[in-house]
From TrEMBL:
<keyword id="KW-0670">Pyruvate</keyword>
<protein>
    <submittedName>
        <fullName>Maleylpyruvate isomerase family mycothiol-dependent enzyme</fullName>
    </submittedName>
</protein>
<dbReference type="Pfam" id="PF11716">
    <property type="entry name" value="MDMPI_N"/>
</dbReference>
<dbReference type="InterPro" id="IPR024344">
    <property type="entry name" value="MDMPI_metal-binding"/>
</dbReference>
<keyword id="KW-0413">Isomerase</keyword>
<feature type="domain" description="Mycothiol-dependent maleylpyruvate isomerase metal-binding">
    <location>
        <begin position="10"/>
        <end position="97"/>
    </location>
</feature>
<dbReference type="GO" id="GO:0046872">
    <property type="term" value="F:metal ion binding"/>
</dbReference>
<dbReference type="InterPro" id="IPR034660">
    <property type="entry name" value="DinB/YfiT-like"/>
</dbReference>
<dbReference type="GO" id="GO:0016853">
    <property type="term" value="F:isomerase activity"/>
</dbReference>
<dbReference type="InterPro" id="IPR017517">
    <property type="entry name" value="Maleyloyr_isom"/>
</dbReference>
């Protein structure tokens, strides 16, 4: 399995969450998470089901959209104990991480694959999506101050934010396709911080928009926000107005309201 920096981040985040799960009390397992309608146990069941479903593809036929699949897989596990959910999470995420590692091989990583409800991506980007899921669910749905579990928040591995941003960059035009049909002019997103980036969101008539890395990008509208804040508000875990976001141009506010990464 290729031992790339990206895979080191995947393993570190998975291990951080596994260590947290092994410390949870029965009350913490059953506490409501910040994911509407889901307990902490449901969130871990969701992550276990992604790993299990990714390696047993017939499971992905159980729903038409990503949300439908997620809800069905979590519902199917609600009769299980926290110990059973933890065993599934540990076993299948371990296997999934190994499989995703092989997908980083140059001969494989650029093969496009459809992901239900969210578009088509190079298969190597499953590593990025894994970091995205674990980073957000652990830090913003389970752990305080947002979630119910009061534990030390693990420091993200170096490169985690950059890895997540690359997933969002490819996902934004696909996940927000309908919401951005109104967009006629380009928008610059300046994501600040050590692992930030500058993107130009370029509309394309009759096609989905394109999000291009461009440090010198200019456009009629510009949005400046911290990269780690953007990860949170782009997923609508919090409204962008709760963060320090600088808007320039008439369409900047409407653009922020149109972004929803899932």
């Amino acid at each position: 399995m290729p031992n790339t920096p990206k895979m080191e981040i995947v393993r570190a985040e998975r291990d951080n969450l596994l260590a947290l799960c092994k410390q949870l009390s029965p009350e913490e397992w059953s506490a409501p998470s910040d994911c509407a309608g889901w307990t902490v146990q449901d969130v871990i069941a969701h992550l276990a089901s992604i790993a299990h479903g990714g390696l047993v593809p017939w499971q992905l036929a159980k729903g038409k959209t990503g949300d439908e699949i997620n809800e069905k897989m979590v519902a199917a596990r609600r009769g299980r104990s926290s110990a059973e959910i933890l065993r599934e999470f540990e076993l299948w995420t371990g296997r999934f991480v190994k499989a995703v590692g092989f997908l980083q091989l140059p001969v494989l990583r650029d093969i496009p694959v459809p992901l239900p409800g969210i578009g088509r991506y190079p298969i190597g980007m499953l590593a990025n999506s894994t970091v995205f899921d674990v980073y957000l669910h652990m830090r913003y749905d389970i752990l305080t101050p947002v979630g119910p579990v009061d534990r030390r928040v693990p420091e993200p591995p170096a490169g985690a934010v950059e890895t997540i941003l690359e997933w969002i960059r490819l996902g934004l035009p696909q996940m927000c396709r309908e919401k951005l049909l109104w967009l006629k002019d380009p928008v610059v997103l300046e994501l600040t911080g050590p692992e930030g980036a500058v993107w130009r969101v370029q509309p394309r008539p009759g096609r989905i928009a394109e999000v291009i890395r461009d440090d010198s990008a200019m456009a009629p509208a510009r949005i400046t926000t911290r990269a780690d804040d953007f990860i949170v508000w782009s997923t609508r875990r919090r409204d962008w107005r709760e963060f320090t976001v600088k808007l320039e141009g008439e369409i900047a506010e409407r653009f922020c309201d149109s972004v929803h990464i899932v």
